[in-house]
C-alpha cells in the first residue's frame, strides 16, 4: 500500500443522487448485482475485442470470466472480472462523475421531484449502474488495473460521504474487483442477505443468465467420505458456473420467457425500465443474421442532445464487436435498442468498413422495415400498455410509444423518403376534431367533407395559439378539421411531404386558402369583384404605409370575426421556423408577410370610408396611419409573433384608448 491517497469530492449532483439512493426504499435492491455483472461483462467484451485488434496488448485472455467472492464473517461481497480494467483517469472520470451529458437535466429533476419517489424515478431515467451498489453497501471499494498498464488504482467511498478516495496500488490483478461492505441485514428471512449462496444463485439466474461469460462462485458441497463404519461427512469447496451463458438472440422466441427478455434489455440498453416491445428477428440465406431489438417504454432524457448515442450492439458470430453501431439504425430510430449478430462479417470490421458494407446496408433496411411494421402492429392491436405507471390507465402500447418517440419518428418523414408512406401511416396528430385524442391521417381522410380537397394543418407553438388564430375562423365556421402541429419537427416535414392518400397537405396560414365549392364561388364572384373595387384605394395605401413589414395587402374570406390576419406565401418560412433558425444562430433575411383584410369587418369598412373621405388630401391625418399600424400589430400578435416595436404599439394603443373614455 502506498501513501498517495487522494481525497476527491463527488460532483454535487452525484452526491445528491447517492444520498437519495442510500435512503430510498427502492423495492428491488437485488438489481445492484445485475449492474455489476453487466459492467463486468462489458469489460470482458472490450478486452477480447481490444486484444484482437491490438496484437501487442499485454493481456491474458485465456480464461475471461466473472467471479463472485463472499466473505461471510466480514460481510463483504466482491464481484471480480479479468476484463479491460480502468486507468486512474478513467476511474475518476467514469466512476467519480455521473450522467455527464445530462447533469443540468439531472439537477433540474432533483429539484423538482418529490423525495419519496425521486430515487425510483431517477434511477429509472439515469440508469445509475455502478452507484446502485450503495443501496446495499456501507462502503464500496473498487480495485482495478487496466490491461497493459503496470499499476492499478483503488477507489473507495463510504455511503453518504461527499468524498471518495483514490490511490495507486502496485499489486492489482488485471481487471476490476468491486467489493461491497454490506449493510447489516436486518430481516429474518435473509431476503437481503447477499452473502448467502442461494440468494446470489437466484439473482444471477434471474437477471444475468444470458451473460456470455461464465459467472463463477465457490460453493461448499458436503460429501460422504470412506466406507461403511468409517463414513464421515466432508466439506469440499468447488467452483461452479452459475449462468447458462446462452445468447438470448440465438434461442427461439418460444423458449425465452418475458422475464429473460426484459433483463437482457436492461443489460444491453443500460436501462432500468421494461421494454415496451421485444422484436426478435432471424434472416437466413445470403445475409445471415439474428437480431433482438427493443422499443423502450420511456424516452431517454438526452434524446434531443448531441451526446445521445444511437444504434444497436453489433456482434459477429456471437463475438461482441461494438456498441452504438450507427450504421445499423437511422437517426430517426435512435431510440431502438438491442443486438444484431451478423454471420458473414469479419471480426476485424471497423466503422469505416461498415459504412461501405452492402450487407450492413441490407440489414439496416430490414431492421427499419421491421421496426416500422412493429409500430404499425401495435397501432392496429390497440392493446393496453402493461405496467407503465406514467401512462393514463386506458392508454395503449401504441399511445405510449407515440407519446415518447413520435417526435423522433417524424424526423424520418424528411430523412427516409423510402419509408415515408409507412411513417405517415403510423403517425398520430393533434387535430381540431378532438381535444383529448390524437388522430391518424387515415382517420382524418375518412372524416373529410364532401368536396374537401386537402388535409388542412397549421403549425405553431401551442394548441391554444393555433386554435385561437384568426386563420382558423373560416375553417371552424365550415366545420373543417385542421391538424394542430406543434412539434418543431412538424415545421420541417410538412413543407416537403406533398400528400397522403392523394390529399395534399395545405397550411391554413399560407397562400390563399380556397374553401368554397364551385357553386359558392360562382355566387361570390360578383361580390368579390365589387369588394375589390371598393377596397382598392385602401389596400393600395396600406401597402405603401406598411411597406416596412408587408409585401402585399389583400382581401380574404378566411376571416369571420377578426378584422385582419397575417399570412405567408406558400414557400415562405413560417414565423415559428424563422424563430427556430434564428435560435440556432442562423442569419435570415427579414421576410415580409401578407396582410389579409376581412371586408365584412366594421373596422375594415370604417377605415375604408375614413380613407375615402380624406383620399385627396396630400397630408392625410396621422391618425389613419396609426390605425393601420394598430390593425397590422394586432394581426401579428394574433398569430403569436412578436411586434418589432412593441413600445410604439403600446403607446398608440394607450392614446387611442384614452380618447374613448
Ligand atoms: P454504464 O454501465 O451505464 O456506463 P455504470 O455506472 O454502470 O454506467 O458504469 C460507468 C462506467 O464505468 C462504465 O461505462 C465503464 O466504463 C466503467 N466501468 C464500470 N465497471 C467496470 C468494470 N468492471 N470494468 C471496467 N470498466 C467499468
Ligand atoms: Mg453499467
Q: Characteristics of this structure?
A:
single chain; 38% helix; 661 residues; Ribosomal Protein S5, domain 2; six-stranded mixed β-sheet; Heat Shock Protein 90; nine-stranded mixed β-sheet; binds magnesium ion; binds adenosine-5'-diphosphate; 23 strands; alpha+beta; Four Helix Bundle (Hemerythrin (Met), subunit A)
Strand order of the largest sheet: 1-6-5-4-7-3-2-8-9
Number of helices: 21
Q: Please state the average pLDDT score.
A: 88
Spatial shape: elongated
Distance between the termini: 88 Å
| Biggest sheet details | 9 strands, mixed
The CATH class of the domain at 6-230 is identified as: Alpha Beta
**Share of β-strand residues:** 15-25%
Q: What's the Cα radius of gyration? A: 33 Å
Textual characterization of the structure:
The protein has 661 residues and is of the alpha+beta class. Among the domains are: 6-230, Heat Shock Protein 90, CATH 3.30.565.10; 248-378, Ribosomal Protein S5, domain 2; 532-568 and 594-660, Four Helix Bundle (Hemerythrin (Met), subunit A) (Up-down Bundle), CATH 1.20.120. The chain has 21 helices and 23 strands. Strands 1-6-5-4-7-3-2-8-9 form a nine-stranded mixed β-sheet, covered by helices on one side. It has a six-stranded mixed β-sheet with strand order 16-15-18-17-20-19. Strands 10-11-14-12-13 form a five-stranded mixed β-sheet. Strand 19 and strand 20 form a beta hairpin. The chain is elongated and about 130 Å long. Bound molecules: adenosine-5'-diphosphate (ADP) and magnesium ion.
Amino acid at each position: 500500500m502506498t501513501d498517495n491517497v487522494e481525497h476527491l469530492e463527488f460532483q454535487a449532483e452525484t452526491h445528491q443522487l447517492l444520498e437519495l439512493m442510500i435512503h430510498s426504499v427502492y423495492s428491488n435492491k437485488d438489481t445492484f448485482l445485475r449492474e455489476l455483472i453487466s459492467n463486468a461483462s462489458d469489460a470482458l467484451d472490450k478486452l477480447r475485442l481490444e486484444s484482437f485488434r491490438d496484437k501487442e496488448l499485454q493481456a491474458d485472455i485465456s480464461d475471461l470470466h466473472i467471479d463472485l467472492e463472499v466473505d461471510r464473517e466480514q460481510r463483504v461481497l466482491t464481484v471480480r472480472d479479468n476484463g479491460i480494467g480502468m486507468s486512474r483517469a478513467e476511474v475518476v472520470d467514469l466512476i467519480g462523475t455521473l450522467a455527464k451529458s445530462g447533469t443540468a437535466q439531472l439537477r433540474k429533476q432533483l429539484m423538482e421531484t418529490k423525495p419519496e419517489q425521486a430515487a425510483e424515478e431517477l434511477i429509472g431515467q439515469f440508469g445509475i449502474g455502478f452507484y446502485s451498489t450503495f443501496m446495499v453497501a456501507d462502503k464500496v471499494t473498487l480495485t482495478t488495473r487496466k490491461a497493459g498498464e503496470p499499476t492499478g488504482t483503488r477507489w473507495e467511498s463510504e455511503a453518504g460521504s461527499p468524498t471518495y478516495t483514490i490511490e495507486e496500488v502496485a499489486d492489482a490483478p488485471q481487471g476490476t474487483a468491486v467489493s461491497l461492505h454490506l449493510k447489516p441485514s436486518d430481516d429474518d428471512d435473509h431476503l437481503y442477505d447477499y452473502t448467502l449462496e442461494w440468494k446470489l444463485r437466484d439473482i444471477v439466474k434471474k437477471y444475468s443468465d444470458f451473460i456470455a461469460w461464465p459467472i463463477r462462485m465457490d460453493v461448499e458441497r458436503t460429501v460422504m467420505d470412506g466406507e461403511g463404519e468409517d463414513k464421515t461427512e466432508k466439506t469440499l469447496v468447488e467452483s461452479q458456473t452459475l449462468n447458462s451463458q446462452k445468447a438470448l438472440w440465438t434461442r427461439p422466441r418460444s423458449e425465452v420467457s418475458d422475464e429473460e427478455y426484459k433483463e437482457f434489455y436492461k443489460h444491453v440498453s443500460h436501462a432500468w425500465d421494461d421494454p415496451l416491445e421485444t422484436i426478435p428477428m432471424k434472416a437466413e440465406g445470403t445475409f445471415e443474421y439474428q437480431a433482438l431489438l427493443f422499443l423502450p417504454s420511456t424516452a431517454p432524457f438526452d434524446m434531443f442532445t448531441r451526446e445521445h448515442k444511437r444504434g444497436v450492439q453489433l456482434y459477429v458470430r456471437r463475438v461482441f464487436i461494438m456498441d452504438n453501431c450507427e450504421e445499423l439504425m437511422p437517426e430517426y430510430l435512435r431510440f431502438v435498442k438491442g443486438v444484431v449478430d451478423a454471420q458473414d462479417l469479419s471480426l476485424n470490421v471497423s466503422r469505416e468498413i461498415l459504412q461501405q458494407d452492402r450487407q450492413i446496408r441490407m440489414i439496416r433496411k430490414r431492421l427499419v422495415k421491421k421496426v416500422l411494421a412493429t409500430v404499425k402492429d401495435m397501432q392496429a392491436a390497440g392493446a393496453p400498455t402493461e405496467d407503465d405507471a406514467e401512462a393514463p390507465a386506458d392508454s395503449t402500447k401504441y399511445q405510449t410509444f407515440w407519446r415518447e418517440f413520435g417526435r423522433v419518428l417524424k424526423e424520418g418523414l424528411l430523412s427516409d423518403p423510402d419509408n415515408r408512406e409507412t411513417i405517415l401511416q403510423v403517425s398520430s396528430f393533434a387535430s381540431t376534431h378532438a381535444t383529448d385524442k390524437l388522430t391518424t391521417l387515415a382517420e382524418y381522410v375518412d372524416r373529410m367533407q364532401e368536396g374537401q380537397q386537402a388535409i388542412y394543418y397549421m403549425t405553431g407553438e401551442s394548441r391554444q395559439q393555433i386554435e385561437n388564430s384568426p386563420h382558423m375562423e373560416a375553417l371552424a365556421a365550415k366545420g373543417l378539421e385542421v391538424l394542430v402541429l406543434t412539434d418543431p419537427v412538424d415545421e420541417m416535414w410538412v413543407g416537403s411531404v406533398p400528400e397522403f392518400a392523394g390529399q395534399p397537405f395545405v397550411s391554413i396560414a399560407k397562400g390563399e386558402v380556397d374553401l368554397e365549392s364551385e357553386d359558392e364561388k360562382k355566387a361570390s364572384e360578383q361580390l368579390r369583384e365589387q369588394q375589390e373595387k371598393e377596397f382598392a384605394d385602401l389596400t393600395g395605401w396600406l401597402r405603401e404605409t406598411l411597406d416596412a413589414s408587408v409585401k402585399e395587402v389583400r382581401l380574404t374570406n378566411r376571416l369571420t370575426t377578426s378584422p385582419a390576419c397575417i399570412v405567408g406565401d406558400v414557400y415562405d418560412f413560417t414565423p415559428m421556423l424563422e424563430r427556430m433558425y434564428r435560435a440556432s444562430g442562423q442569419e435570415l433575411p427579414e421576410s415580409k408577410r401578407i396582410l389579409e383584410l376581412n371586408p365584412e369587418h366594421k373596422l375594415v369598412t370604417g377605415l375604408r370610408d375614413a380613407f375615402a373621405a380624406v383620399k385627396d388630401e396630400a397630408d392625410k391625418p396621422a391618425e389613419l396611419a396609426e390605425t393601420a399600424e394598430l390593425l397590422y400589430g394586432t394581426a401579428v400578435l394574433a398569430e403569436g409573433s412578436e411586434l418589432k416595436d412593441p413600445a410604439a404599439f403600446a403607446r398608440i394603443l394607450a392614446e387611442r384608448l384614452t380618447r374613448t373614455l
